[in-house]
Design a protein that fits this description.
By secondary structure, the protein is of the alpha/beta class. The protein contains 12 helices and 9 strands.
Length: 294
């Protein structure tokens, strides 16, 4: 099989733009669309064709990859593209859509006779730009030969969770992973806020846990973004993390479990966004510990 494909990327924010560039570097013909065309235009310098509409982007595509804000946004864009979608086209859906959202997307795929792959990713701006994302994927094994070159271009590894994307097994795993990431990020912010309130040098805390089971690279990396005032450009924005936290809470409710930490995390992230930090890195949830924007 010739692994060179025509790939349509719908959504060129932090993650989508990086994925589109890596697909082009891998030798695929890439077409990109974004609701705000200005965000997609720089991709032209990487040999990527920037389309004016979703339909224009997907026409003749072998694979359509969506990386949009949430499930409703992905569904809206795919409906705009519907007239140009060919039956049998592979749809790699990488938006963090939530349990209900992915079910709606899978239903649309069935209506349009698309081969649906639920394929959210773990990673932020840096691994996305390096093509080192972890892809969590579910979809039919007999069509994976078509999507594997796409997944290999954007990720370092793909973990297959099932053969029916409509079951949302990959999305459910993504929510579990994100619950840990979001809880850890918010805990880090409170550690720094408490250090400030108690006049404790954060470095003394890092020295105390160094090399032990409480130490972790993620804690140090996210703390540095606050301490060194490097919250922009974001690796993963506050507003997007708040959306994901709400999806996690909703998923827990559907499963009959109460997720107090996730709910509190969502509130902190939403408060930080209201203070003006929505477009900064999710570490900026730190500011939610204070009454006003610091």
């Amino acid at each position: 099989m010739n692994d060179q494909l025509t790939v349509s990327v719908l959504g060129t924010g932090i993650m989508g733009a990086a994925m589109a560039r890596n697909l082009a570097r891998a030798g695929h013909a890439v077409r990109a669309w974004n609701r705000s065309r200005a965000k997609a235009e720089p991709l032209a310098g990487d040999g990527i064709a920037v389309a004016g509409t979703p339909a224009e982007a997907v026409e003749g595509a072998d694979v359509v990859l969506t990386m949009l804000y949430d499930g409703p946004a992905a569904l809206d864009v795919m409906r705009q593209a519907a007239a140009a979608l060919r039956p049998g086209t592979a749809w790699v859906q990488s938006t963090t859509a939530g349990v209900e959202g992915v079910a709606d997307l899978a239903a649309f795929a069935r209506e349009q006779d698309l081969v649906f792959y639920d394929a959210p990713v773990l990673g932020t701006r840096q691994p996305a730009e390096a093509g080192q994302l972890l892809v969590l994927a579910a979809g039919p094994a007999d069509g994976r030969h078509k999507v594997t070159p796409v997944l290999d271009a954007v990720g370092a590894r793909t973990v297959w969770t099932g053969e029916d994307g409509a079951e949302g097994s990959a999305t459910r795993l993504k929510l579990v992973a994100n619950s840990w990431v979001i809880a850890t990020t918010n805990a880090m912010g409170e550690v720094l806020a408490l250090s400030k309130a108690l006049d404790v040098d954060p470095q003394n805390f890092f020295d105390a846990i160094a090399g032990g089971p409480l130490d972790m690279g993620y804690l140090r990396a996210k703390s540095a973004l606050i301490l060194d005032d490097k919250l922009s450009p974001p690796q993963f924005a506050v507003s997007t993390a708040a959306k994901d936290a709400r999806l996690i809470v909703e998923a827990g409710e559907r499963g009959g479990v109460r997720l107090d930490v996730a709910a509190a995390s969502a509130e902190r992230l939403e408060r930080a966004a209201a203070q003006g930090h929505g477009d900064e890195d999710m570490a900026a949830a730190y500011f939610a510990s204070f009454d006003e924007k610091a």
